[in-house]
Amino acid sequence: MIGCKRVAAIQDLSGLGRCSLTVIIPTLSAMGVQVCPVPTAVLSAHTGYSEFVIRDLTDFIHPALEHYKRMGTHFDCIYSGFLASAEQIDHCLEFFSAFPDALKVVDPVMGDDGKSYATYTGELCKRMGELVAVADIITPNITEAAILLGEDYPANPLGSSDARSWLVRLSEQGAKTVVITSVNLAGGGMHTIGYDKATNSFWKIRNDYVRGAHYSGTGDNFTSVLIGSLLKGDSLPIAMNRATAFSELNVKITYSYQQPWTEGLMLEGQLPWLTSYQQLDDYSIL
C-alpha cells in the first residue's frame, strides 16, 4: 500500500482568523496529503486583529529539524510561508538543505496591494530572495513579484509580453516553476499566471473573484491546493485551475455571508469539493 504524501509546513498558527496552518492543514488533508506543522509562532488571533497575543517559536524550528533528521523522516515537500525574522529564513534554508529530494515551495509572503507589510524591512525582503533562489516553486502575488524583481508595483495592467518577462525573470532567480497571483492583465481582468521552465510554457487563468472581497488566508488556500494537486501528479495548468477554482468558491461563499475579512475564508463546508470530480479547463496559454 502506498502511503500518502507528506508536507512539512513551516508556518505560524493562529487561534482566530483562518490563515497559515489553520488553512493549510485542513486543505491538504482533504486532498489526502499529510501535513506536518513546524510552527514558527503561536498567536491568539492573526495580526489583523488588535491586541493579539503571540509566542515566538523560532527556537523550536532547528531542534525539530534535528529530531526529524535523527528519525530518518521523509518529506515529499517543504512549504514555507510568512516568516518574521532572518533567523527563521535561516532555519527554512536548513530544512531545504536537509531534504534535498523534497519539493521546495516558497510562498514569499511580504506584502499586498502594492505595499510591503510593516514587519518586512528591506533587509528581510532581500533575505527572502535567498529562499526563492533555492525553491522549486514560488507563488508570489503581484506585489511580492515586484519586490523580488526590484520593480515598481504596476500602476497599469500588464501586457502579455511583460507578464511573460516577469515570470521568466523570477525563474532566473532560481525557481523551476513560478506562479503569480492577482495579476491585472491588459484587456483581460485579474488573472493567475504561471511559468514552467522545463517546458518553457506560460499559462493564465482568469480570476472570477468578487470585486473588493479580500480575506485573510486566501493565498494560503491557493498555494495549498496547488501543492496538493502537483503532489498528486497534476500538470501545472490543471493545478493552477484547481487552486483558482477552489479559492473562488470560498471567496464567493464567504462574501455571501458578509463575513469580516479577518475571519478568513469559510472553507470548512467546501472541503469535499477537493475530492469530487471537476472539469478543469479554464486555463489558456499566456
Q: What would your notes on this structure say?
A:
The chain is an alpha/beta fold. Helix 2 (58-71) packs parallel to helix 3 (86-98), helix 3 runs parallel beside helix 4 and helix 7 packs antiparallel against helix 8 (236-256). The protein has a single domain (6-271), classed as Ribokinase (UDP-N-acetylmuramoyl-L-alanine:D-glutamate ligase). The relative contact order is 0.14. It contains eight helices and twelve strands. The chain starts with 5 loop residues before the first strand and ends with a strand. The strands form two sheets. Strands 3-2-1-4-5-8-9-10-11-12 form a ten-stranded mixed sheet, with helices on both faces. It has helices spanning 21-30, 58-71, 86-98, 122-134, 142-149, 160-171, 218-231, 236-256; strands at 6-16, 34-45, 54-56, 77-80, 103-106, 111-112, 115-116, 137-138, 177-185, 189-196, 201-206, 284-285. The radius of gyration is 18 Å and the shape is globular.
Helix percent reads: 25-40%
CATH superfamily name? Ribokinase
Low-confidence stretches: none
| Overall structural domain count | 1
How many separate helices? 8
SSE sequence, one letter per element: EHEEHEHEEEHEHHEEEHHE
Profile the largest sheet: 10 strands, mixed
Quick one: how many beta strands? 12
Shape-level CATH architecture? 3-Layer(aba) Sandwich
Q: Shape, please? A: globular
CATH third-tier fold name: UDP-N-acetylmuramoyl-L-alanine:D-glutamate ligase
Q: Write down the CATH class.
A: Alpha Beta
Strand order of the largest sheet: 3-2-1-4-5-8-9-10-11-12
Q: How would you classify the helix and strand content by structural class? A: alpha/beta
- Percent strand equals 15-25%
| Radius of gyration (Å) | 18 Å
Q: Give the N-to-C terminal Cα separation.
A: 40 Å
Q: For the residues shown, what is the average pLDDT? A: 94
